[in-house]
Structure formats: C-alpha cells, structure tokens
TrEMBL record:
<dbReference type="InterPro" id="IPR027443">
    <property type="entry name" value="IPNS-like_sf"/>
</dbReference>
<feature type="domain" description="Fe2OG dioxygenase">
    <location>
        <begin position="198"/>
        <end position="306"/>
    </location>
</feature>
<keyword id="KW-0408">Iron</keyword>
<dbReference type="GO" id="GO:0002238">
    <property type="term" value="P:response to molecule of fungal origin"/>
</dbReference>
<dbReference type="Pfam" id="PF14226">
    <property type="entry name" value="DIOX_N"/>
</dbReference>
<keyword id="KW-0223">Dioxygenase</keyword>
<dbReference type="GO" id="GO:0016706">
    <property type="term" value="F:2-oxoglutarate-dependent dioxygenase activity"/>
</dbReference>
<dbReference type="InterPro" id="IPR044861">
    <property type="entry name" value="IPNS-like_FE2OG_OXY"/>
</dbReference>
<dbReference type="GO" id="GO:0009805">
    <property type="term" value="P:coumarin biosynthetic process"/>
</dbReference>
<dbReference type="Pfam" id="PF03171">
    <property type="entry name" value="2OG-FeII_Oxy"/>
</dbReference>
<comment type="pathway">
    <text>Phenylpropanoid metabolism.</text>
</comment>
<dbReference type="InterPro" id="IPR026992">
    <property type="entry name" value="DIOX_N"/>
</dbReference>
<comment type="similarity">
    <text>Belongs to the iron/ascorbate-dependent oxidoreductase family.</text>
</comment>
<keyword id="KW-0560">Oxidoreductase</keyword>
<dbReference type="GO" id="GO:0046872">
    <property type="term" value="F:metal ion binding"/>
</dbReference>
<dbReference type="InterPro" id="IPR005123">
    <property type="entry name" value="Oxoglu/Fe-dep_dioxygenase_dom"/>
</dbReference>
<keyword id="KW-0479">Metal-binding</keyword>
Length: 344
C-alpha cells in the first residue's frame, strides 16, 4: 500500500522545489529518515568529526563601545575574517522582531510561499527558494530561504511579503549606522580617507537581506544546512538565533570553529568583494551550517555589496605603496552570477 509520504518521496523535487513545500514541508511530514537527495558526501560533513573542530577556540567578540574598536575590527578582519559585535546599537526588539517574522513567513502554507518562487515572483527582488542551487547540486541542502534585494522603501512596501516586510526593513535601517562604522574602520587601514559617494556605491551600493529557515532534521549527521562557501559581499551582518550550528574555517587550516550564539550580538564577516578590494589583506573565510536534530533554526544575513555595475579590483589606495595587485578587475554582477550558477 502506498502512503502520501511514500508518493512525496518518489518525487522530492516536485514536492520541495516545484510545489513550494521546501524542506520545512518535508520536516512537517515527520519523516524518521533523511531522503537520499539530502545525503552529502562524507567530506562535506567533516565538521561533525570532532578532530576537525577546535572546541576551545572562538572568533573575536568586539565591543563597539571600546575606545580601541577600530583596531580590533581591522585585526579581526585580517586574522579571522569573522567576528561578533556587541553594543552595536541595533535594538534587541528589532532583532527579536525580524526573527519572529522569519518564523511567520516560513509558517505560511506552501501556496502562499510559492508565489515568491523564481518562476512566480512578481519581481526579481523577491525570491523564495530551497537549498542553494537545486538544479546544480548533487546533494541538496537542508535549508529554505527568502531573499529580498533592497531597491527602495516604496518597492519593498509594495512587493515584499506582508508578514515580514516591516521587520526586515527595520532591521536593515537600524543596521545602517553600524555598517558605516565598520566600513569606516576597515577602509582607514587601507589608506582610504573617506567614504564619498563613489566609494559608497563601490562598498555598499546594494543590499540584500535573506531570511533563512533550517527545520529540525531527521538525520542531521548526514546532511548540511548550508554547505561550505564564502560570501560574495563586501561584508555580511548576520543575526542568528540561540540554536547554534554556524562553523567558520580557521584561516589557512583545515579546522572549524563554532560561532556560539551570544544573545543580542551580530556576527560580521568579510566577503569576497572586500578581500579583492583590500588586495587580500582582509579575508573572506569559508563557513557552513550544520543541520539540527532537535530544533528549527533561523538566521538573517544582510549582505552589504558593491552596486552590481561596479568594477571591483584591488583599490588604488592599497597599491599606492608599490604593492602588486593579486586580483584582476571584474564586473561585480558577473562575479555574483558565477557564484549563483554553481553549487557551493
Ligand atoms: C540561497 O542560499 C544562499 C545565498 C547566499 C547569498 C549570498 C548573497 O546574496 S551575497 C550578495 C549577492 N549580491 C547581490 O545580490 C548583488 C546585487 N545583485 C546582482 O548583481 C544581481 O541581482 C544578480 C544576483 C547577479 C542577479 O542578476 P540577474 O541579471 O537577475 O541574473 P540572473 O540570470 O537572474 O541570475 C543569475 C543566477 O543566479 C540565480 N540567483 C539570482 N538571485 C538569486 C538569489 N537571491 N538567491 C539564489 N539564487 C539567485 C538565478 O536563479 C540565476 O541562476 P540560473 O540557474 O537561473 O541561471 C549565500 C549562501 C547561501 O546558501
Ligand atoms: O545561517 C547562518 O548562520 C549562515 C548563513 C550563511 O552563511 C549565508 O546565508 O550566507
Ligand atoms: Fe554565508
């Protein structure tokens, strides 16, 4: 006799991707084993092997009220590429609201979420999806997401999903000041004097906010939430909840460090665009998220990016002293398209 769950398992792509149920839909079926489509190659699950994890280590925690904050930010960007900030000025209420809004969006029925899939969305700026690049991946990732590209408040008011737009916009708005402070500190060490209009477009001319949902998983040890990748942003401001599971690669080593959640903090990481513009001084570090066997997890990254039509390359200010460029110039939107068109 065939059950509804058996017929779903016989066509996972239809149920998860095409019908908009996502991995949340699969998790809600109460499966007790992971569908084979999600089984990752052993080497991609390595960070679950304790010999590769450094339990004693943590990425730097930086107090934004500390008088030496600028040096701490630049040192962390050079040595770790990742750090957490506290006393950053984004109110706790704003952080809690956007996490709640994320749960609200993913709690919607599939027929409401599918309206925002690549095929149905009324705009390129709003996209609901699952895994990273399901068409390209040999094994899928245990994550659903809503990706919101910021064009203007008016566009967001009209087109972003009602259940989460105000909270996502408020998080973006209230993070602007800390993003400026971080970038000002980072560029000063690169010999750049100020963020004028041209530099503003180059460093932060576009922003995207993603709402990520990682449902409880029947066999977390066999899959990943997000596979190993580095972000293509200038920098990323990440809000995570208290579940944990984000791991960061230790620079130049094959070991991984857990980013333990700290209530009220934000995780900051340098992205590829800033690694390139700093001629390799600041590091865009690989990271990944494991799946969790007992809890649903949400996270909300704000990707601060160059404007898509910017040409990015090592900054002239960095090369002034005679340093040789180690990266070519590239059109930023080409770089991003390349990133999205292949699996992690
Ligand atoms: C989902 O799991 C993720 C996501 C991430 C994300 C990290 C980041 O977003 S970092 C910041 C990205 N930078 C920008 O958004 C910069 C500004 N945007 C652009 O330059 C453009 O919007 C564009 C992203 C390059 C898209 O340009 P467009 O001309 O519209 O090109 P398309 O042909 O439509 O798209 C190319 C290709 O990418 C896929 N794609 C586009 N947007 C997204 C998205 N938000 N999420 C997922 N995939 C996207 C699109 O479907 C196309 O693929 P095809 O297979 O259809 O060719 C980090 C980690 C994760 O796990
Ligand atoms: O969920 C997380 O903690 C990290 C997500 C991530 O790396 C991304 O969306 O780029
Ligand atoms: Fe990331």
């Amino acid at each position: 006799m065939s059950t509804p769950a058996m017929s779903i398992l016989s066509n996972i792509t239809k149920f998860v991707v095409n019908e908009g149920n996502g991995v949340k839909g699969l998790a809600d079926l109460g499966l007790d084993t992971l569908p084979e489509h999600y089984i990752q190659p052993r080497e991609e699950r390595q960070c679950l092997i304790s010999s590769n994890v450094e339990p004693e280590e943590s990425i730097p925690i930086i107090d934004m009220d500390d008088p030496k904050v600028a040096d701490s930010i630049c040192d962390a960007a050079e040595k770790w590429g990742f750090f957490q900030i506290v006393n950053h000025g984004v109110p706790l209420r704003v952080l809690d609201n956007v996490k709640e809004a994320t749960h609200r969006f993913f709690g919607l029925p599939a027929e409401d979420k599918i309206k925002y899939s690549k095929e149905n969305s009324p705009t390129n700026s709003v996209r609901f999806g699952t895994s990273f690049s399901p068409k390209e991946e040999k094994a899928l990732e245990w994550k659903d997401y809503l990706s919101l590209f910021y064009v203007s408040d008016d566009e967001a008011a009209q087109l972003w999903p009602t259940v989460c737009k105000d909270e996502a916009l408020e998080f973006m708005r209230r993070s602007e000041y800390v993003i400026w402070r971080l970038l000002e500190a980072l560029i000063t060490r690169l010999n750049v004097k100020e963020i004028d209009e041209t530099k503003e477009m180059l460093f932060m001319g576009s922003k995207r906010i993603n709402l990520n949902y990682y449902p409880k998983c029947p066999n977390p040890e066999l899959t990943v939430g997000v596979g190993r990748h580095s972000d293509v942003s200038t920098l990323t401001v990440l809000l995570q909840d208290d579940v944990g599971g984000l791991y960061v690669r230790k620079k130049d080593e094959d070991s991984w460090i857990h980013v333990a959640p700290i209530s009220g903090s934000l995780v900051i990481n340098i992205g590829d665009a800033l690694q390139i513009m700093s001629n390799g001084r600041y590091k865009s570090i690989e990271h990944r998220v494991i799946a969790n066997g007992s809890k649903n997890r949400v996270s909300v990254p704000i990707f601060v990016n160059p404007r898509p039509n910017e040409i990015i390359g090592p900054l002239p200010e960095v090369l002034e002293s005679g340093e040789k460029p180690i990266y070519k110039q590239v059109l930023y939107s080409d770089y991003v398209k390349h990133f999205f068109r292949k699996a992690h």
